[in-house]
Amino acid sequence: MQERVKKPQFDVVGTRPVRPDGVDKVTGRAKYGADLKMAGQLVGKVLRSPHAHARIKSIDVSKALALPGVKAVVTAEDFPGQPSEFIPAGEGVVNYRDMTSNVMARAKVLYEGHAVAAVAALNEKTALAALDAIKVEYEVLPHVIDEMEAIKPGAPILHEDMITTGVTPAPTKASNIAKRVEFVLGDAAKGFGEADLIVEREFKTKAVHQGYIEPHACLASASEDGSAELWVTTQGHWVVRAYCAKLLGWEIGKIRVTSSEIGGGFGGKTVVYLEPLALALSKKTRRPVKMVMSREEVFKASGPTSGGTVKVKMGVKKDGRITAAEAEITLQAGAFQGSPVQPACMCAFANYDLENVKVVGYDVVSNRPKVAAYRAPGGPISTYGVESVVDEIAEKLGMCPIELRLKNAAKEGTRAAYGPKFGPVGLIECLEAAKESDHWKAPLGPNQGRGLAAGFWFNIGGETTVSLQLNEDGTLTLMAGTPDIGGLRASLCMMAAEELKMDVSKIRPIIADTSSLGYNFLTGGSRSTFSSGMATVEAARSIVKQACGRAAKLWDIPEEAVTFEDGMIRPAGENAGKHKPMSLSDIAKVAGKTGGAIVGYAAISAQGAAPSFGVHIADTEVDPGTGKVTVTRYTAIQDAGKAIHPSYVEGQYQGGAVQGIGWALNEEYIYGADGKLQNAGFLDYRVPVASDLPMIDTIIIEVPNPRHPYGVRGIGETPIVPPMAAIGASVRRASGVRFFELPMSPPKVLKAMKAAGKA
Amino acid sequence: MRYEKPTTVEAATALLAGQGARVLAGGTDLLVQIRSRILNPDVVVDIKGIDTTRKITKDTSGYTIGAAVTGAELKEHPTLSKDWPGLVEGANLIGSTQVQGRASLGGNLCNGSPAADSVPAMIAAGAVATIAGPKGTRTLPVEDIMLAPRKLALTAGEFIVSFKIPARPAHGGDAYLRFIPRTEMDIAVVGCGVALALDAGGTCTAARVALGAVAARPLLVEDGAKALIGTKVDDAALAKLEAAAKAACKPIDDKRGTVEFRIDVAGTLAKRVAKIALERARKV
Amino acid sequence: MAKHHVTTTVNGDPVEYLCESEQTLLDCLRDELDLIGAKEGCSSGDCGACSVLIDGRLVCSCLVLGVEAEGKEVETIEGMAQGDELHPLQRKFLEHAALQCGICTPGVLIAAKALLAKNPDPTETQVRYWLAGNLCRCTGYDKIVRAVMDAAAEMRGA
Amino acid sequence: MAHVVLIGNLRQYTGDVTQLEVEAATVRQLFRKLGETFPELAPHLEEGLAVAIDGQIYQDALLEPIGPESEVHILPQIAGG
Q: C43-74, pLDDT tens digit by residue?
């Protein structure tokens, strides 16, 4: 049975100390991906396809190699072919044939920006000249961009051997549908039969980019002895190591990967692009090779998340009880299979306690960059459709959207449509908090409206290793292996300080490289505070145990006769004898003479992650003369389980909400008829700027996760799930028009308002 | 690429008369185009070493604004924002605070984009460019300088030294608004500048209406001015202005907006801008 | 083409560097002077991560040629703290948790410093518009705006 | 006997069987028995699936104990962004 967490009193957890990596980041000292320099380093650049879809007939690099200052060129020939097999590694399951074909195009280029060759030269100017000197002969092929076009008969086929899986009998002809998935609970047809009202709608969302401000960057240095070092901005350097070793055919143990400070990832830095190229170029030149993507390359060649088409049908009784729900979700995978359609399907109705559900999903390839994970991958897309339909049901029934949700909300014991029953979860608490909030009750002005939506993410644990060493003076050094993107080191030190009952400033953390620590899965899936936190607590407890053992030896009493209380090691009672309590510092001073250094080490596969539900409230104002939507007030409410450092929890809620606002209103990949991306820059790929936004209010709900020592749930993913539907519902009330397509950009809004006579 | 920073107009025109020369003022467009390899000039001629390009002077006939004066400097001028607030607003909508620290009226115009924010405001204000060239100096109204995207009425060796902005009429006001999807950092989807003058009785005696981003070049909308002149700029006049503005548009569908949207918004903006200009004219 | 020899002042120190005409000030700061605090996020003036002050004026160093810094006073994030003493903005950013990944932070801090030099008592709206050229993808700007307002209040002695 | 439910597309490897009773004390034992019963399913069990034991999701946890009355769901692995 699961053990419920007692509500403990915390000394450090729940406070807001200054983060240990903070000063370096406000003084410009912190080193990110592009900030390291090595003696003799070369500049690496990538030649990219100008075509959306073409066969590579030939590549002639001779003129490039002949240029003075050009040291090496690599093409697909420099990377061994990989069999098409699905291997668990890194971000779920990967197909190394696809991965190697994505980092360097093999027979065909499959999207504009697809890497074709890479060069290393003395400087950037020479490297760019070398790219110009490489002659690639293409046979341009017809392309397809939109996912619904890509599944039509007669659409250009990207992969001649792609046979849709998940369909019986298996198709005999290749198509762009990689996979069909299906999740069924109960009997949807029966449920619709019981409904008093059925709402059925189709939604469309566009591909959006994670939009991290730091472009992909790395510095590789391969030695003559077959070893190599790689400095890289990544969410998971062990994963980078595994991918590079596989793509290059090198031994894992010979590659040492160090993660730089990372300038944002949001899922987009969980895969490799430049890294294997830099290593290969370094091996050829025996010199360090630095590669940094331009912003244009980031947009054209690194993963956005899918755009997609979501059909939702929901049936409901007059009293608001949902009787059945169906969805069909078609997501863009980009040029290679692997859209987040599976989690999209699983998230679709996770907010609700339903008996009859059917969700079908399709993973569709088209001539776009391969998608990468983006914050709650898939969840925001399906949830946008479902929560928009729930809002419409509330409107049609004349019910408060919160009451409708409370009537159907997932709770402990609810069987999710993807099978298992939830443990304790906090959706009802979030909805109640929304209902009680000032925001929900505040009056609205003219042309303003208010919307609300809920969201969910599973959260994960996974392989994690942490080392905590007690230094000679009683300070501690913490080594974690999950890159810190948003305050992780602060939270880990706080958890260690909580266990050791010491001042958090005495603990100095680093993110260790792959040769210094056991395996760590990446920072993603909202796992790092949960998993590395769990390992940190275990490592800290190990320190306590070892320190108690040393004290027992010094006091000549059995280990069981020693306890650790209030930060001091004490005899465990009268019978243990009278010994002066010792601090960890006291033990640290004599550690060397009593058996050696005291190091807590925890190598775990963290289990027990628990989902986090959230509810967002959005107010918008719509300009009837231009169709422009302005967010005027916003509140993000979410269950954190336990907020270790509340400021960074709030920061996740706020940041996720704003990414969602961007997705809802202006962000989109815009393609021309030529299959080329038209807005590969921050000028026309419009992420929200400071003046677009109000303050983002937050309410942290704490329904503890019984499987974590402090009750922690992951919290990073969920905040991006509700915003699109919350804003859609708000715009509906502000403009009088309901929208079914993202982004709700001014031309679309004005057009719809005019058509409805509202402009 | 060579970098030259002449200190005289003559030296600059001589350099610019050569092959592959480009003017560098604020550089906020030029450097982006060089960096993204759209342009590959042999020589960039930094005109900021020439005193007259960097100064704002005022006399009874109005202002002379150096072509390389930045948006931030326009805003900081003690009287310009009072006399020509729309012009200053237009210049200060170009990019971010950072960009305003560099971007200039001359550069914004000569970049040759129909969406340049300062250009409709300059046209509305009746700005005239002073152009230096190998054959001497000439003047040209701002609305006649840009012919088509990236195409200017300047010949080899010519560059804009400064702009002459007339003195504000006694009861005159101007304004500029643009539409963008965000609040900042975007290129105008539609831009509109209006300058008008009233008589003592509040009747409009003169008006200039300009639109940006709705055609291949910024437009001076004569019918828009006609809709206002002789009226009290009442709702009927504004409705005529809206119609004239919409009728003048010859926009394209692109990633920033549709034809239909640009026409609609041009009408909306023209009315809103005229109202602000009217308020300003009434206050002085 | 010979390189330009540029003599300038960076964070109060006289410095010299050699640069090619194409090199931006950002390239020169990072590659020639090893001042890596200013970041390259876009190379087009759209993200503000490379913000520096030139003669007190806020600019994107990616939109300035290195050779243009001749004779100027350049200020970067590395010059913001005085000895061990963090600038109030830096302190408030830490206290308010106004950074997550931190890549935009140097640019935001420089921009905010320029704002407060010009306007010691900005409204929330003024802070938001002034910082519109500094993209932050992590924080949603909330804590950044609060930190700037709080630092302004402290610097005013309010 | 644990009650085992196969979620999503797994039915295509089991001849449409989605629910069955299996005697297994750990996830490893369960996977082995399922692999023996449904040979087509075996590679997928190896390539990374999650299990939910009485509602709690486990990933990469072959040694996790399964209670005699446990309800076990086998579902796709979950990652994140």
A: 999 999 999 999 999 999 999 999 999 999 99
> Is this prediction's ipTM beyond 0.90?
yes
- The chain A residue lying nearest D62, using CA atoms, is A605
Pinpoint the residues of chain B covered by CATH 3.30.390.50. 172-283
List of chains touching C (3+ CB pairs within 8 A) = A, B
> A691 and B184 in contact by Cβ < 8 A?
yes
Residue with tokens 């107010």: A619
d(CA B129, CA B111): 15
Q: Is the peptide bond before B6 cis (omega within 30 degrees of 0)?
A: no
Q: Which residue, among D31, D21, D35, has the nearest Cα to D60 in the 3D structure?
A: D31
Residue of C23, C138, C143, C149 to mutate when probing chain A, most A C-beta within 10 A: C138
Phi/psi of residue A465, nearest 5 degrees: -135, 135
Report how many Cβ contacts below 8 Å link chain A to chain C: 185
User: Is C131 an 8 Å CB contact of chain B?
Assistant: yes
pLDDT digits (tens, 9 = 90+) for A405-415: 999 999 999 99
Contact yes or no for B194/B109 (Cβ under 8 A): no
Of all residues in chain D, the one with the smallest CA distance to A362 is: D9
User: Which class in CATH covers the domain with range A22-29+461-606?
Assistant: alpha beta
Distance from CA of A733 to the nearest CA of B (A): 20
b/e sequence B14-36, b meaning 16+ C-beta within 10 Å: bbbeeeebbbbbbbbbbbbbbbe
- Taking the CA of residue B109 and the nearest CA in chain C, the distance in Å comes to 18
Query: What pLDDT was estimated at residue D43?
Result: 85
Supply the pLDDT for residue A8: 65
| CA–CA dist B127, B130 (Å, integer) | 10
Q: Check CB contact of B140 with chain C, cutoff 8 Å.
A: no
Closest Cβ opposite residue A342 in set D52, D60, D76: D76
CATH architecture of C4-79: Roll (3.10)
CATH architecture of C88-156: Orthogonal Bundle (1.10)
pTM: 0.97
The domain locations on chain C are 4-79, 88-156
Spell out, as residue ranges, where chain B has pLDDT lower than 70: none
Helices (H), A72-142: 96-103, 124-133
pLDDT in tens, A511-521: 999 999 999 99
The reply to whether C87 touches chain B by the CB within 8 Å rule is no
- Please give the pLDDT value at position D60: 85
State the span(s) of chain B assigned CATH 3.30.465.10: 2-46+60-166
For domain B172-283, the CATH class is alpha beta
Return the H-helix or E-strand segment holding C116: helix C105-118
Alpha carbon separation from A121 to A113, A219, C153 (Å, rounded): 21, 14, 51
Q: How confident is the model at residue A3 (pLDDT cuts 50, 70, 90)?
A: very low
Query: Chain B residues with CB inside 8 Å of C134's CB?
Result: 96
User: Which position has the token pair 């010199």?
Assistant: A287
Return the CATH number of B2-46+60-166, one of 3.30.465.10, 3.30.450.40, 1.10.645.10, 3.30.450.20: 3.30.465.10
CB < 8 Å to C145, chain A: 690, 695
Tell me the C-alpha distance between A104 and B28, whole Å: 34
Q: Taking CA atoms, what residue in C is nearest to B99?
A: C59
Task: Say how far apart CA A18 and CA A111 lie, in whole Å.
Answer: 44
Looking at residue A2, what is its pLDDT? 41
Q: What is the mean pLDDT of residues A215-223?
A: 98
- What's the confidence (pLDDT) of residue A5? 47
Q: How confident is the model at residue A573 (pLDDT cuts 50, 70, 90)?
A: confident
Q: Rounded CA gap, D57 and D72, in Å? A: 9
For domain D2-76, say whether CATH 3.10.20.30 is its number.
Answer: yes
